[in-house]
Amino acid sequence: MQEQELQNCLYQMEQGDREAFHNFYTAYKDYIYRTVLLLVNRSEDTADVVSEVYMALFRSLHNYDSGKPFQKWLNGLIVAQTSNWNRKLWRRFRLNLRTSAYQEKEQMTHTSADTPVIRQESERELLNLVQQLPSKLRSVIIMRYYQEYSFQEVADVLDIPLGTAKSRHHQAIAKLRKDPDKLKQLTRYYTERGESL
User: Phi/psi zone of residue 8: left (φ > 0), alpha (ψ -120 to 50 degrees), beta?
Assistant: First the structure.
């Protein structure tokens, strides 16, 4: 969806236009679903959190500043709703150890036929490791590496200082490096992408 088309669509949605919502939903449903799936503690909660995101979108659409990038605003909304859900879930299940909380039930990355199988497996393994991080650290890693945001953009979306975004990134990488197997998987993943860890 082009920027002008998006702005018109958002305006019409704010006015209650169902066709505009349908167009928005068609354009963003996969993006919202994948992002929530990456951030939510339990993959089986994804559909509920996605519903919360759409409700929050309608409630706060009037607060969106059209002079700023929509996707950053949307990501902030997704992170906020996912964090709220995770916090509620944590309160509900505080006494439960939740050993199965991080199991993957669906493939989380969109792959194409020309993507090598080894890279897909590396990404899946790395994503499983990232899923085990605390929510605050996981949010930074997902935005930084999966959505390719700069540290400043991560800080803006999460509404935290730039130093905090960098600190959380450093903490997340340190946690992932503690386990030699995790370090090997991380190194392989970044080497395949032509990056360094």
Answer: alpha
Q: Is the dihedral of CA 165, 169, 170, 174 positive or negative?
A: positive
The domains found in the chain, sorted by start residue, are: 1-94 (1.10.1740.10), 107-197 (1.10.10.10)
- Residues 47 and 95: beta-carbon distance below 8 Å: no
Quote the Cα angle for 193-195-197, to 5°: 120
Rounded to whole angstroms, the Cα distance separating 41 from 132 reads 8
Residue bearing tokens 């995790």: 182
Collapsing DSSP states into helix, strand and coil, what is residue 194? Answer: coil
Q: Whole-prediction pTM value?
A: 0.55
Per-residue pLDDT tens for 174-196?
Answer: 887 776 666 566 666 556 655 55
